Amino acid sequence: MIWNTIITVVVSAVVSGAITGVAVYFKGIKKRTTALEEGMLSLLRTEIIRQNDKYSDRGYCPIYAKDALQKEYDAYHQLGGNGTITKIFNNTMALPEEAPMNR
């Protein structure tokens, strides 16, 4: 009878400890994943702004650059990016694809 009680207490403690350990482990993974997502959002935001500045100064944006920008913008939104970058993205995409002819 006493052995059953001891075994029950020990097993309960081990299971409780294991569950706590797993919960802490997954909380750490979630925290790291969130940090990685936030970092990637920041990098994508910065690159979209940089591309806009670069091609706005030139007055055109080649089609290959627009393709890359579209992929960056899509990833930005899939990671939860907000709409503040949308206007910048649209401005860049509205640029002509070829350099203006000098007259």
Question: Overview of this structure, please?
Answer:
The chain has 3 helices and no strands. By secondary structure, it is mostly helical. The radius of gyration is 26 Å and the shape is rod-shaped. The protein starts with a helix and ends in a 10-residue tail after the last helix. 12% of the residues are buried. The model has no long low-confidence stretch (mean pLDDT 90).
Spatial gap, N to C terminus: 101 Å
Q: Give the uncertain stretches in residue-range form.
A: none
Which value, in Å, is the CA radius of gyration? 26 Å
Envelope shape = rod-shaped
Q: What string gives the helices and strands in order?
A: HHH
Q: What fraction of residues sit in β-strands?
A: under 5%
Structural class: mainly alpha
Q: How many strand elements?
A: 0
Number of helices: 3
The overall pLDDT average reads 90
Estimated helix fraction: over 70%
Question: How would a crystallographer describe the biggest sheet?
Answer: none
Concise summary:
With 103 residues, the protein is an all-alpha fold. The protein has helices at residues 2-58, 63-78, 86-93.
Secondary structure elements and their pairing?
Layout: H1 2-58, H2 63-78, H3 86-93
Helix pairs in contact: 1-2, 1-3, 2-3
Keywords:
mainly alpha, 103 residues, single chain
